Amino acid sequence: MMGIGLGSAHWGYLTVDMTNLYIVQGLHGGVGLMALFILIITVGFRDVGRMVRFFETDRAKKFTGWALGVCLFIHVMNFIGVSYFGQINMIWYMLLASIASLGSLVDMPAPVASRVGGARNRSIGGAKIKLTSAPRRKRPPRLPDSDTTDSGSNASLAQT
């Protein structure tokens, strides 16, 4: 349940090298670590699926989400026969970071509508969302023209 520090050498002759990363996770951290490892993979697939569905109209972002899903699937299949170690782990972590950062775009709120007429209702994905107009910016105070303030003093200089 908690993992073992011995590795797999005590299992028998020529059983030192473990190539299944799921079993390696179980050996190092037990059932808990293997469950967390599978949870990370599950959340990655969930976020990729959300990305592809959310960016239905934007082909580039939809393709990016699909490509990240394919990369994740390839890693999951590789874990059956390859135990990652060393620098290859960075590629795995980079993929997870890419999915997490691009998946956060899906959770961003919709932009505020910039309609002057006030609030309007819109239905997105079956949910009614009330969009309000953007707040108006105040204009900076208008500075007086230099001709009107100095006109009296310039007129007196011109007469002399």
Would you write up a description of this structure?
This protein is mostly helical and 160 residues long. The chain has a domain at 9-103. It is built from five helices and two strands; from the N terminus they run H-H-H-E-E-H-H. Strand 1 (120-124) and strand 2 form a beta hairpin. Residues 113-119 have low confidence and may be disordered.
List the defining traits of the structure above.
54% helix, 5 helices, 160 residues, mainly alpha, elongated
| Shape label | elongated
Name the quaternary structure. single chain
Through-space gap between termini: 104 Å
Radius of gyration: 31 Å
- The DSSP helix count reads 5
Percent range of helical residues: 40-55%
Strand content: 5-15%
Q: Would you tell me the structural class of the helices and strands?
A: mainly alpha
What's the mean pLDDT score? Answer: 75
User: Which H/E pattern describes the elements?
Assistant: HHHEEHH
The main sheet comes to:
2 strands, antiparallel
Sequence stretches where pLDDT stays below 50 over 5 or more residues: 113-119
Number of strands: 2
Give, in spatial order, the strands making up the sheet with the most strands. Answer: 1-2
What's the SSE blueprint?
Blueprint: H1 21-54, H2 59-81, H3 88-103, E1 120-124, E2 127-131, H4 146-149, H5 151-159
Antiparallel strand pairs: 1-2
Helix pairs in contact: 1-2, 1-3, 2-3
Give a nutshell description of this structure:
This protein is mostly helical and 160 residues long.
